[in-house]
């Protein structure tokens, strides 16, 4: 089963967003002229730092090549040094490299690290989806279900339902799998995903 197949568009959209904005959005109430000056200084400093981090992330991940250990080490170091969204994105890139090498244990480690580094709900959802796919490959159905429970938002309902059905079926729970896929079909899923889940339901007999 291909680990990276359903949420790539969301990942690309997230990368574009953070590359274009170059700054984590921090909202606060600023009172007084002195506080406002301090805020502007801090904001400009943070904006510059974020742009530098974004540029470094783009450079390192563009050069990332699993066959070149030095590039993997460079991105690993970047992820370790940046406990923020860019670090999480770097961990996501590293996880794919490990999956390509069938090193699922290290892929899981990177995804779990990424989840600790970002508060962005959509990026957390992508990280959890990829983690669940790997756990499914590892035949850890209970861990898959627990990971899927951490994914919030209606936009992910169909993909979560598909994976939940696979996990339940692997546990021998055919009715649970049928119910999960039915929920996915009834959601605002893409026609292709709906058709796939319907085929899986049909195969249950």
UniProtKB/TrEMBL annotation:
Matching InterPro entries: SecYEG/CpoB_TPR, TPR-like_helical_dom_sf, YfgM
Alphabetized GO MF terms? protein-containing complex binding
Spell out where the chain crosses the membrane: 24-42
Q: Name one Pfam family in it.
A: TPR_21
Source organism, top-level taxon: Bacteria
| Keywords (A to Z) from UniProt | Cell membrane, Chaperone, Membrane, Transmembrane, Transmembrane helix
Classify the protein's membrane topology as the record does.
Single-pass type II membrane protein
Q: Name one GO cellular component term.
A: plasma membrane
Q: Family assignment?
A: Belongs to the YfgM family.
| Name of the protein described by the UniProt record | Ancillary SecYEG translocon subunit
Q: Which organism is it from?
A: Paramixta manurensis
Native organism taxonomy: Bacteria, Pseudomonadati, Pseudomonadota, Gammaproteobacteria, Enterobacterales
């Amino acid at each position: 089963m291909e680990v990276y197949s359903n949420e790539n568009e969301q990942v690309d959209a997230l990368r574009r967003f953070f590359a274009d904005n170059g700054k984590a959005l921090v909202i606060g109430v600023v009172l007084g002229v002195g506080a406002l000056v301090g805020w502007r200084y801090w904001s400009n400093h943070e904006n510059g730092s974020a742009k530098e981090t974004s540029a470094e992330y783009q450079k390192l991940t563009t050069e990332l090549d699993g066959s070149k250990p030095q590039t993997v080490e460079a991105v690993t170091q970047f992820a370790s040094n940046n406990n923020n969204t860019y670090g999480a994105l770097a961990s996501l890139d590293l996880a794919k490299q490990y999956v390509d090498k069938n090193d699922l244990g290290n892929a899981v480690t990177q995804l779990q690290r990424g989840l600790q580094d970002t508060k962005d709900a959509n990026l957390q959802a992508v990280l959890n989806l990829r983690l669940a796919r790997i756990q499914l490959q590892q035949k850890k159905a209970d861990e898959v279900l627990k990971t899927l429970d951490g994914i919030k938002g209606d936009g992910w309902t169909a993909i979560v339902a598909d994976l939940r059905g696979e996990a339940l079926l692997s546990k021998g729970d055919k009715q649970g799998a049928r119910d999960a896929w039915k929920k996915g079909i009834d959601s605002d899923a893409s026609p292709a995903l709906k058709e796939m889940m319907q085929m899986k339901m049909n195969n249950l007999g």
